[in-house]
What we know:
With 522 residues, chain A is an alpha/beta fold. Helix content of chain A is 34%, strand content 25%. Chain A has a six-stranded mixed sheet with strand order 6-7-8-3-9-10, with helices on both faces. Chain A has a six-stranded mixed sheet with strand order 16-19-20-13-21-22, sandwiched between helices.
Amino acid sequence: MTTNAPALELRRVNKWFGAVHANRDISLSVGRGTIHGIIGENGAGKSTLMSIVYGFYEADEGEIYVNGALCDIDNPQASIEAGIGMVHQHFMLVDTFTVLENIILGVEGGNRLAGGIEKARIELERLEREYTLEVDVDALVGDLPVGLRQRVEILKALYRGAEILILDEPTGVLTPQEADHLFRILNTLREQGKTVILITHKLREIMAITDHVSVMRRGEMVAHVATKDTDREKLAELMVGRSVLLRVEKEKATPGADLMTIEGLNYIDEDGVARLKNIGLTLRAGEILGIAGVSGNGQSELLEVLGGIISPTSGSIRYKGEELVKNPKFNARDLRKIGLGHVPEDRHKAGLVLSFSANENTALGYHDLPMFNKGATLDRTKMVSACETYIEKFDVRPPDATLKASGFSGGNQQKLVLAREMEQDPDVLLVGQPTRGVDIGAIEFIHKQLIHMRDQGKAILVVSVEIDEVMSLADRIAVMFDGAIVGELDASEATEQRLGLMMAGISDQELHVSDPEGEAVS
Amino acid sequence: MEIFEVTILLLDATFRVATPLVLAALAGMFSERAGVVDIGLEGKMLGAAFAAAAVATTTGSAWLGLMAGIAASLALSSLHAYACVTHNGNQVVSGMAINIVVAGLTPTLGFAWFKLGGRTPALNGDERFSSITLPFADAIGNIPVIGYIYAELISGHNIIVYMAAAAVPIVAYVLFRTRFGLRVRAVGENPHAVDTAGISVEILRYKALAVTGFLCGIAGTYLSTAHGAGFIRDMTAGKGYLALAASYSENGSQSQLCWPVCSLPLPTRYRRDFRVLNYLSSV
């Protein structure tokens, strides 16, 4: 081990999945005590590469050096021993365990738990102090908010003696304030000499925190640059391979008539938990209403109620003057018929049948329309030709209407769902997470389509956990917290700070009452 | 006084009938906690019952029978693990296959070996686990209430009943106070968490299923060499499924586990124990 060797070095790493070359000749060098960003679109191979480093997959070719020494990492145990810790995008925690039990899992220190637990408690107190990672070690992980669960993951890695910490899309589930706190923690880690690798597709984070950045595209490393020598536009271009518009270009909205009015909407689920509390919203023609919020604050339920999938407990939804609640038409199928399109949040669970072909999927929900039928039976030719039109219009790749939905990438699957709903020309379109798991090129396209629809005088409701997306797409923004609308504001007045506080449940009024000096904002 | 005596008799019989259910439910709980559905409890018990009776009658030793019962059940458990853990097979299909194969194979082998229409010869003497009279049972048996409870209820069961009674706290300790238990509980809740902690999910599940096989083996042996006196086809009569249901209704803490396990034998009890039934109808 030499002192000036890089903390982690990869040499010509290759990985194939069947015929897919997921990682092609990847070389990477990460200096000790730095924060190194790895950026790339979804499917660029970032996660595969990090899974190789963490020992989930074995590289088909190539070498991994940790602190200058060649390491044979073929399982997570070997990686942990080499001093690598990973914080996964989906937390690898046991919800029914306490924080302490989660942290000691795998390093219990003996057959009986009692001794190990006490030792761990003392060690954790030290780590928490050193890195400002406060968390109640006796709390059940299932009861903790996501920001704290992430801290548990970081503690878990540090407890195992990690010198190199890999974070995979760490901010996807955090409010901007929580993300800032995470960045402060990462800064502390860097000051203490730890090495941090940050995998993300968010350019803002790369610019905010990293020292160096490596860009991946289609399984290859296309660039290594020092963060201070680059900017967002250059990185985006490197990621996509062509220049992209990061900000949606749109005219000012010219809102027309109220198409849908929601008043006093409540929904109490089977467990008796109030998921929606007195929701009031108005969707106007020619306007995009964005719903911001950390996921799990009632947005999903709101979409499902408006889409006719679940019935609200009380309240009123008026669509073009007609009351929909307690109306026989209030079901997903009939709502589509009267011009209410719905792009569900989770395209795998609710948007598509993955084992069906593209043309079957683009007919689903509208499959009883004459455009897909011949007499009493489905007309395969019509379905395929309709799907081919959609594919051409929405630039779906590969352009194959008979390919199974599971054979398309996330972005193209989303395009298929959007095409299905938009091409029926609805007056109101409900869109959940329009670009979740979609790459930058396709995001640009989807945003343009939505704006185009707005300009034709349709009302659009966009629910997204990506605050950037809501801010750039919406004309008005409502923020949800704990099932209620915290506040509504015009997109031009929205700042990330303001939205972030509202996403944490602090409304504008409260801010002014309890915090006249505006300290909470600073 | 009659109510008291009947209650003691009822509890006494409950102990005997509950023994295989308690053991099998604990077995089922291990695999369930490790994230493997095991509807093959029934088959494992039946296989163990047959192996135990066959070996006991051949060798003349109930203890060798117990070993054979455990070995048979472990073998079936490994088969289940091989199908479901190593090859990611469907757990219900594998469990059901074990049940069906064993239900058919045991009387067939029994017929081939013993020529008694699928049974094993009746066991007696050392071929069975006989009742143990605990120390002082005779001496204090005449003391009202306490002595009576000790002599009639606590004393006079065979060794496996006491094993089952001991198994409950032991299993609770293993599951909640040891490293192995922590890992088993974790792998059932979130196998990825275990994987990322550098522990092999596969080996852990094999171990948990081995415990399942071990406990099921004792349960099955009890049926043919302690409770009964020989193997009869389909002698488990759905006890494996009852135990499975019991192992599923727990969720979380140790205390919650006790209730379903303890309450399960009662309906079986009322159905079987005519003395109790007669008494109840006479009231």
